[in-house]
Amino acid sequence: MSAVDWSRLQFATTSIYHFLFVPLTIGLAFLTAILQTLWYRMGHPEHLRLTRFFGTLLVINDDEYVSLEICCLLLGSAAGHIGGPQRTTERTIAPGQGAGITLFG
After folding, report:
1. CA–CA separation, 24 vs 3, rounded Å?
2. Cα separation of 45 and 39, whole Å?
């Protein structure tokens, strides 16, 4: 494959990922926040159970984001594009911090 083909593959993968998973992430975050608020105000155990379930799905979705971004970073480096240290840090560490806060409070 040429560099142009790798670049097209990277763009297609990133576009499809953003089209599918970004709205899913936003919706799960909103739903998790609403369920957490309901549990805090009402104290029903069902709300806590649903919060944990959808929070786990949110963390899994964030982990997929990290793995895809690492793959895109490697593909970009293979095609001659170097993202820089700030971009690498933002792509790999920031979603993991969100997952840690979600899981461990």
Report:
1. 31
2. 7
Query: pLDDT, tens digit, for every residue of 28-79?
Result: 889 999 999 999 999 999 999 999 999 888 888 877 766 666 666 666 655 5
Q: How many other β-carbons are positioned within 10 Å of the β-carbon of residue 76?
A: 17
Tell me how far apart the terminal alpha carbons of the chain are, to the nearest angstrom. Answer: 45
Q: What is the pTM of this model?
A: 0.61
CA distances from 55 to 6, 28, 35, 60, 75 (A): 34, 7, 10, 9, 30
Query: Per-domain residue ranges for the chain?
Result: 3-104
CA distance 4 to 2: 5
Max Cα distance, the chain (Å): 59
- The DSSP-derived string for 22-61 is HHHHHHHHHHHHHHHHHHHHH--HHHHHHHHHHHHHHHHH
**C-beta atoms surrounding 72 within 10 Å:** 19
